[in-house]
Design goal:
By secondary structure, the protein is mainly α. The chain is about 70% helix and about 0% strand. The longest helix has 27 residues, at about 110-135.
Length: about 190
């Protein structure tokens, strides 16, 4: 891994662990083992570093959501795969990137605020599409008129599980039975 990749990886970890406002280039330099000036060579500002991290995640998220939609045959398996996607980096007891950013969205630079909203818009739109498709297939009993609300509640549940796991020191685990009940999916399906 080259220096730029190390900086991105470590900065993302610090962002998810402490939050954007609570880590500095001094923290990052110490974690990577370089001088602060070297960081400025790659990322002139902390905002530029944050934007690079989030834009990279948005591209990966979009690709992975398309993959889930294609590879997972049911809404329940899609939701569980989506949850796994968001929790992949939470094994270290940090928050998913979107949740970490949302926690301090009001103090983020304007461009990062916009990207944070985009992060959620992409996820919520994907959830709405997945729910609408499942309703059309007769797979769940959710109200088609409330798809937006249902998607927001699912997103809150998924991010909430990560927040509780972090606060309690337990492993992140979304319960598939609870997801099925929320989605109105019979246990016999």
């Amino acid at each position: 891994m080259n220096t730029r990749e190390q900086l991105l990886s470590q900065a993302e970890f610090l962002l998810r662990e402490r939050g954007y406002a609570a880590f500095s280039y001094a923290d990052l330099a110490s974690a990577v083992g370089i001088r602060k000036a070297s960081i400025h060579h790659h990322f002139p500002t902390k905002e530029a570093l944050g934007i690079t991290i989030v834009e990279s995640h948005l591209a990966e998220l979009t690709s992975r959501l398309q993959q889930i939609q294609t590879e997972q045959p049911t809404l329940a398996t899609q939701i569980m795969a989506f949850s796994t996607l968001l929790s992949e980096k939470s094994a270290d007891r940090t928050l998913p990137l979107c949740a970490a950013l949302a926690a301090e969205v009001t103090v983020l630079p304007e461009r990062l605020q916009t990207l944070t909203r985009r992060f959620f818009d992409i996820q919520l739109q994907w959830l709405q599409t997945a729910i609408a498709s499942a309703i059309a297939r007769g797979e769940c009993t959710l109200d088609a008129q409330r798809i937006g609300v249902e998607a927001e509640h699912l997103m809150a549940l998924i991010d909430g599980v990560a927040l509780v796991a972090r606060g309690t020191g337990t492993a992140y685990a979304l319960d598939s039975e609870i997801v099925n009940r929320l989605l109105g999916i019979s246990a016999n399906r």
